[in-house]
Design a protein that fits this description.
The chain has helices at about 10-15, 15-25, 45-50, 60-75, 85-90, 110-120, 135-140, 160-180, 185-205, 210-215, 230-245, 285-300, 330-350, and strands spanning about 50-55, 80-85, 100-105, 125-130, 145, 225-230, 250-255, 270-275, 300-310, 320-325. By secondary structure, the chain is an alpha/beta fold. α4 (about 60-75) links the parallel β1 and β2 (about 80-85). The structure holds fructose -6-phosphate.
């Protein structure tokens, strides 16, 4: 039941603080060491892995893209991300030492199922990240990390996505622990940041009224762009996908660094552009994103900026500023997804669309 919400999607958006807490529950010790008992692949085999390929479709593929940044950084294992259907029908290089990670909320996506069957025929190990207990993909995998988000009924994935991110972080940290590529205190620091996420998400949801105002001002947009860099790039793609599937308007996500290689030609007066700004930090990511925002604003775009609270460098270039909690760069996708989910839900509601059952879409895609 919808618990008084107008849509399952809105209910599921609001369940995310609890869903993230459940996804973390029992998976680390007090001292921050990871415990992933359900990964039934021996430590010895985990140390032999020389390549990871993450396969998924749609929103789950964007979780996979975020996972690549985190897993490579923490484990130094080369990690590829591929759409399940593209992976299956080329001739991928798979060995016994390849770990194939399949991400699927439903556990029934035929494209991903066919891909894992193929990977196992090639003797690779398959680990599923899945939300649905006992579904086909985990049953046919060597190991599974369940995301524990609870049933997701709205067709557009929300809590499914953020809990997939959590599972990917846990997997990356677990591999780093087993392989000794990161020290215990480093892992503990990230675990502490993960544990703060439910509180951050709750505060974001409590303070989300401005997203409704924003949706009202954009109800007649014909096209919306989304820009991000690094772990914010998949978030931009996810923001665009949510808008396409729920509001049926043209939306596209780009890596901000790619702008000058083509997409900047699309920028025109009043075009809404969502910009996901990396946290301020040691590297140049943040400043490069701020320059990109200056460029598009100079060409008349309406900039809707998602940036960490207190980011005064970017505020002058934001027509609308959506503040994000302060979190490490690799974890930012969790908090940056929230306003984009809410925005798509609000806009589709204002347009009179069925948010839970968008046209032409099914919750689980059981045919290739
Ligand atoms: C978008 C959405 C879809 C799914 C995709 C994969 O909101 O829900 O793009 O993410 O169909 O589904 P699963 O994760 O069930 O394999």
């Amino acid at each position: 039941e919808k618990d008084g919400y107008d849509w399952f999607m809105r209910k599921e958006i609001h369940e995310q603080p609890r869903a993230v807490a459940d996804a973390l529950l029992g998976r680390h010790t007090e001292s921050g060491a990871l415990k992933l008992d359900e990964v039934r692949i021996s430590d010895e085999d985990l140390r032999e892995i020389d390549k990871i390929i993450i396969i998924a479709c749609g929103t789950s593929n964007y979780a996979a893209m975020v996972a690549k940044y985190a897993i490579e950084h923490w484990t130094r294992i080369a990690c590829e991300v591929e759409l399940s259907h593209e992976f299956r029908y080329r001739d991928p290089i798979l060995t016994r030492n390849t770990l194939v990670v399949a991400i699927s909320q439903s556990g029934e996506t035929a494209d991903t199922l066919m891909a894992i069957r193929y990977a196992r025929e090639q003797k690779s190990k398959v680990l599923a990240i899945c939300n649905t207990n006992g579904s086909t993909i985990p049953r046919e995998s060597d190991a599974v990390i369940y995301t524990h988000a609870g049933p997701e009924i709205g067709v557009a994935s929300t809590k499914g996505f953020v809990t997939q991110l959590i599972a990917c972080y846990l997997l990356g940290l677990f591999l780093a622990q087993v392989r000794g590529t990161r020290f215990g205190d480093e892992i503990r620091d990230v675990v502490e940041e993960l544990a703060k996420l439910p509180g951050h998400l709750q505060r974001q949801l409590d303070e989300s009224a401005s997203v409704l105002d924003l949706a009202k001002t954009l109800a007649d947009a014909k096209s919306v762009l989304f820009l991000g860099r690094h772990a914010g790039f998949p978030v931009a793609l996810e923001g665009a996908l949510k808008l396409k599937e729920l509001a049926y308007i043209h939306a596209e996500g780009f890596a901000a660094g790619e702008l000058k290689h083509g997409p900047i030609a699309l920028i025109e007066q009043d075009l809404p552009v969502f910009c996901v700004v990396p946290p301020r930090g040691r590297d140049q990511l943040h400043d490069k994103m701020v320059s990109a925002i200056q460029e598009i604003r100079a060409r008349g775009a309406r900039t809707i900026v998602l940036a960490e609270e207190g980011d005064d460098d970017v505020a002058p270039y934001a027509d609308v500023l959506l503040p994000l909690p302060v979190v490490p760069t690799l974890l930012q996708p969790v908090v940056a997804a929230i306003p984009l989910q809410l925005f798509a839900c609000e806009l589709a509601t204002l347009m009179g669309h069925d948010v839970d059952q968008p046209r032409n879409l099914a919750k689980s895609v059981t045919v290739e």
